[in-house]
Amino acid sequence: MSAGTHLKIGIIGAMHLECDFLRQQLKETTHKQYLDIKITLGSWSGHAVCLLESGIGKVNATLAAEWLAREFKPDLVINTGSAGGIKLGTHVGDFVFADKVCHHDVDVSPIGFEFGELPGLPVYYAVKDRWLKKLDQVATQLQDMHHIGTIATGESFIYRESQVAQIKQRFADVVACEMEAAAVAQVCYLHDIDFLILRNLSDVAGEEAQTSFNQYIEQAGRKSTELVLGLISQIN
What is the set of domains in the chain, with CATH numbers? Predict the structure, then answer.
């Protein structure tokens, strides 16, 4: 990537409160719709940006990522929004960045596969080191507290201690869980598109997670927007 290169950057967020502030910041915007997915085309810092508000869950995230791959053809896909912290020492308002993501609710182990593994696909989808380093650098400059590790995806809101314990037992170095990231990563892996997963913690998985999520989801969306736009601004 040479100096002055303008990229096409796709951004996927699940919920209105995770996307609305970012949508308002983009320049030269136009809007369209695919199924129930709200699409905003715009720009930031000289780069073409396409923001998709996908809806919650893996199927919605897959539809959004596939639309991006086919119609927008991005150089980089960023999946952003909120997550629940799992790692000891994470707090509401912290960021988590994936070095790899996995499906914590996939289990075909009775026929010889690992937890999280689908036949013909890896257990973990790895983020390219150069993008993770850039994200880490920008977050450090912005003085955003952040943690790097595995982000685990499943179709359930994780709030019981027993759920947390099981995920940590099955997958290494899990920092957070949520409901879309591995689906986005899997589509990007299959299309050979670079991706980043960054989430702000709206809750820390445990018995109080539901209350915390409802209180902090808007804050998580705003903080994620600031970091995403800061990152795009520093991509040459």
Answer: 8-233 (3.40.50.1580)
